Amino acid sequence: MDTFPNDPLQWKDSDGDSYGDNYYWENMTVEDPLIAGNFITLRDEHGDAFPNEGSQWADRDGDGKGDNPNGSQPDAFPDRFTQNSDPDGDGYGNNVTLGAFQPDDCRTDYGTSWRDSYGCPDIDGDGQSDRNDICPYDKDFWSGSKDQCVITEAEQDEVMGSGDESFSIDPMVILGGAILLLLTALVIIQVAKQSARRKGKVLVSEDEYIDLRTDHNREEEERKKKWVDYYVSQGMHDKAKELGWQDVSELPQWKQYEIEKAAAAETPTMFDLEDL
C-alpha cells in the first residue's frame, strides 16, 4: 500500500512520522545567521533523514544528528556540521578538533568568553576569559597593565556571598519572610481559636496572643538593630538607612543637640557614683 499516493517520490513511512523514507537533498548556500558576510552550506531536504526514528526527520547540516530539539539525540547546532553537542549549555560546541566551529575551551564550565577563548567563565562580561583577563572585574579593560584597572574586586554582595553565607541574603528578604510567617501564624491561631470555640474550649487567650505578638516584634527589632550595626560598622550606610538608621551628622542642629543632651543625661556623674 502506498502511504503517499499523491507523491510520486514517496511511498513508505517506516517510523510513522509522516515523512517518507525516500530521503534525498540538494546543497544550498545561505547567509550565516551568526557571522555577518559569511556563508554556510545547508541541505534542502526531501523525505525522512531518519526513516527508523519517529522523533527525528531533518538534518540540514548533514552531521547525522536530528534537528528536532525534543527528539532523540538532538543536534545542539543544527546549522553547524562540525558541532552537535553542548553539555554545559553556553552555546559553544564540545568538538575541539582543528577546523571545528567555535570550539568550547571550557567544556565542563558554563562561560561567555569569546575574545581569547570560547565558552570560558567571564565574570565582567567583556569577552575575555577570567584566566587571561588583566582586569577580571572591570569590563572596560582586559589587556595591558593592572594599573589601569578601575574595578579591582567583585561587588560587595558577591564578596559577602562567597565568604560568609550568613550575610549573603538581603535583610529585606529576611524581614519579608518574617512578616509572612507572622501573618501565617495569625491565620493559624484564628482558625484554631474558632475551632476550639466550636468545641467549647479556648486555645489561646487574648493576653497570651498580645504577649506572643509583642515578643515577636521585639525579636524583629533586635534582628533589625543587629543588621543596622553591621552595616554601619562596614560603612554600608545606604543599606543601614533602608532599615531606618539615620546619620546623626545629617540631622538638623536642634535634633543633634537633643540627642547629645539625652546622652549626657544618661551618663552617670560623680555624685551618682558616690550614691552607689
What features would you describe in this structure?
- This protein is mainly α.
- Among the domains are: 1-84, no CATH class; 168-250.
- The chain has helices spanning 156-163, 171-198, 206-233, 237-242, 253-266, 270-275, and strands spanning 24-31, 39-46.
- It has a two-stranded antiparallel sheet.
Summarize the SSE layout with pairings.
Layout: E1 24-31, E2 39-46, H1 156-163, H2 171-198, H3 206-233, H4 237-242, H5 253-266, H6 270-275
- Helix/strand order, N-terminal first: EEHHHHHH
Low-confidence stretches: 159-167
Question: What is the mean pLDDT?
Answer: 84
Number of helices: 6
Helix-strand category? mainly alpha
Oligomer: single chain
Say how many strands there are.
2
Main beta-sheet annotation: 2 strands, antiparallel
Strand order of the largest sheet: 1-2
Taking Cα atoms only, what radius of gyration do you get, to the nearest Å? 34 Å
**Portion of residues in helices?**
25-40%
Shape annotation: elongated
